[in-house]
Amino acid sequence: MIDVKKILPILGYASAIAASLAMASTAAFADVKAGVDAWSAGDYDTAVRDWMPLAKQGDPDAQFNLAQAYKLGRGVPMDLDKAKTLYGQAAANGLLLFQDGEREKAMPYIKASAARGDPRAQYILGVAHFNGDLVEKDWVRAYALVSLARQSGLPQASRALQKMDEHIPLADRQKSVILSTQMAAEAQATSQRMAATAELGTPAAQPGYAPPR
Q1: CA-based, 20 to 30 A from 199: which of 8, 39, 93, 212?
Q2: Angle at 212 between CA 68 and CA 117, to 5 degrees
Q3: Which residues contact 26 (CB under 8 A, 6 or more apart)?
Q4: pLDDT tens per residue across span 14-49
Q5: Whether this model's pTM surpasses 0.70
């Protein structure tokens, strides 16, 4: 069995993420929620003002919500480049949360990032599916996700696949080829849809995320 806690230290992405990124405090969460309430009431300007300083401090909920605001042009001018940057920052903070042990809190970001084709998130989610850790055990999906991460050049994915080869039957590995192709196509479609999305979606139903409007 691959232990996700043992594999994570060799990821090598921690140095690429600023160690000084602030984790969300109780007060920050309250401010993010205030922005969500303002957004729900149609007061986009106030919502953006609430999220902006928190996003700069590294709060992933605020970063994700602000990215959505930039994507839709509500409370701020539409700017897809800023939206993509903020999505990336939210994903990075989600990965950092995972590495710091807040795995359950990080998982919505991991799933959302994997769906957009982030190889680090695909790797982590794949290993989680292999272990049945915080997600259902699914060896076909696990192998498909980690294979996609390897195709993107993530070196630790190759090592994980070698270990998975010792446990996952050939038939399941063959099924994963079809699934990985579907996942790659869906990730590309998600990226292409981003500019056309008319509603504010969320990776998971959590109080820190802005609701659809």
Answers
A1: 93
A2: 50
A3: none
A4: 323 322 233 334 445 567 888 888 998 999 999 999
A5: no
